[in-house]
Amino acid sequence: MNLNTYLKIVRASAWYDLLLTACFATPWSFALAHGQLSAVNQWLGGAALPAFSPFHILFACLMGSVVLVWSVLRLHATTPLFGRYDGVGRFLFSLWMTWALVHTGAPLLWLFVVPEFAWGVAQWLPVDTPAAQDGNSTARAPLTSAAPMRSSLGG
């Protein structure tokens, strides 16, 4: 995939996160989202989601706040490196969501696991480096513009 396409994927994943996790950033927006998520889970055939105590809401809001900041960073400074890190984070999120799915059977989780894993895969696809696009044969470090180190002995 060419670099511009890859950066569009990184930006799109940041917008996805921004829109999906904004409701997790405050206790008040989370309370509304929790009710909606519970209704969706029931509509899909699952049980109502359990009530959250203030302690649970704290962790939900911490997660929402960190993801919002991470999303804005990726929108402001879209780089392949941030895309790769985001891909790793998505694989971890997918793993923990799958763990919760196995333990709860909540069908709502499928609506999060599948896109999360897909974004992770998309951000780990091979990307043409600028050197490969220019036909330059100088070896470069993956996803950077750094030329290889040369020794003072001519190596």
Fill in the keyword field for this structure.
single chain; 155 residues; mainly alpha; 6 helices; 66% helix; globular
The count of domains is 1
Quantity of strands, as a count: 0
Main sheet specs:
none
Radius of gyration: 20 Å
- Structural class by helix and strand composition: mainly alpha
- Indicate the overall shape: globular
Percentage of residues in helical conformation = 55-70%
What is the mean predicted local confidence, pLDDT? Answer: 89
Measure the end-to-end span.
Answer: 32 Å
Quick structural summary:
The chain has six helices and no strands. By secondary structure, the chain is mostly helical.
Describe this structure in words.
With 155 residues, the protein is mainly alpha-helical. The protein has one domain (3-131). Helices cover 66% and strands 0% of the residues. The chain has six helices and no strands. Helix 4 (80-104) packs antiparallel against helix 5. The relative contact order is 0.15. Mean pLDDT is 89; it is low at 135-141.
Topology (elements, then pairings):
Layout: H1 3-21, H2 27-43, H3 54-76, H4 80-104, H5 110-122, H6 130-134
Helix pairs in contact: 1-3, 1-4, 4-5
